[in-house]
Amino acid sequence: MEKLKRAVKEIAYAQDQAKLPKFHSSLIPFLSFASSIYGAVLTLRHSLYRSGFFSKHRLPVPVISVGNLTWGGNGKTPMVEFIAKSLADYGISPLILTRGYAGGDEAKMLQRHLLGGPVKVGVGANRAAIANMFFVKYGYLDCRGSKLSERTNLDQKVESQINSEKIGAVIMDDGMQHWSLCRDLEIVMINGLMPWGNGHLLPLGPLREPLKALKRAHIAVVHNADLVLREKLKDIELVIREIKDSLPIFYTKMDPSYFFDVSNINTKMHLEAVNDAVVLCVSAIGSANAFVQGMGKLGPFYVHRFDFTDHHSFQNKDIQMIRERLGELEDNFSSKPIVVVTEKDYDRDPEILKHLHPFQVLVLCSEMQIIPHKGSNEDQFKLLLKELLELEV
């Protein structure tokens, strides 16, 4: 199954299908047929929502949807966390709704990062039902038209005392295709490294909807922009502008901050811990290329990679394969390699990675940052967020 998933992804992002291996080429007719069925079902479902046959739920507080048009690696969850912290700084207690897909690694990471603060995390496929459970427990307060904390610099943190646990806004993680819940703000995330793939719908391509769905968005965010050539960023912007010329575009990156050891989550290690080291990047995420490229910038002597498909749950056989690769690296370089994983990989199963002992396993912790580009910056993003949510600045 892992081989099949990998082959499907390689087909989806292939620039030239004629150069694909024979096994991959044999899958294309089946994937093409499945893609046609998917497109027909998508069109029918959308029309049923537009006609009112399927009902949409309206929540009593503003709803922000953070989603994407392609599978994985678009920075949705880091953006959800960024927005949640921003709203909390303004004195608004947000509720994050996430479906907890494939073991809930993203939900676990959000809960760990936001523990002890005013942000609440609800996990479940029925977002409206989960939201209502939290409204019953904590109450709600519509923040539209409310006066937010005055600040001379939007980038400056405020010591905001939230006098009530009442929920003031909802943020949907991976919400663009969740049409049963009305939203006030639609943010679409785009992976700058692999924006549209081959342009086909799932499963032949990576698109969950046609590109024209960008018309529904209020904000577009190009993620991993620091790893993309300027010319490619221009091409991405051109595609967006052809579909919706007025759409505000922002650019983001993941900024590494520190490591911690899987054997002790409370340890904080400087990024220099991998200087001149042999590093094996192990990941099961949507954009492993971004992870590996980012690690290469931290100064290791050599970076090797061991990729699994997105949300893959590590098994004992995987640990054995990783051990064998580590042994090969140790023999080749006469140095004990360091394993580095992402936070999502750690949160999926914090215990199994400890089985790689005596090899050291580090978790790379990063924060999303908005990159100043063409006049767009973090201050403008937060100001636009307030304006679109009709919050009084």
UniProtKB/TrEMBL annotation:
Cellular component terms per the entry's GO annotation: membrane; mitochondrion
Spans through the membrane: 27-48
Domain of life: Eukaryota
InterPro entries xrefs: LpxK
The protein's annotated pathway: Glycolipid biosynthesis; lipid IV(A) biosynthesis; lipid IV(A) from (3R)-3-hydroxytetradecanoyl-[acyl-carrier-protein] and UDP-N-acetyl-alpha-D-glucosamine: step 6/6
Enzyme nomenclature, EC number: 2.7.1.130
Keywords noted in UniProt: ATP-binding, Kinase, Lipid A biosynthesis, Lipid biosynthesis, Lipid metabolism, Membrane, Nucleotide-binding, Transferase, Transmembrane, Transmembrane helix
Pfam families in the cross-refs: LpxK
PANTHER family named among the record's database cross-references: TETRAACYLDISACCHARIDE 4'-KINASE, TETRAACYLDISACCHARIDE 4'-KINASE, MITOCHONDRIAL-RELATED
Protein name: tetraacyldisaccharide 4'-kinase
UniProt source species: Corchorus capsularis (Jute)
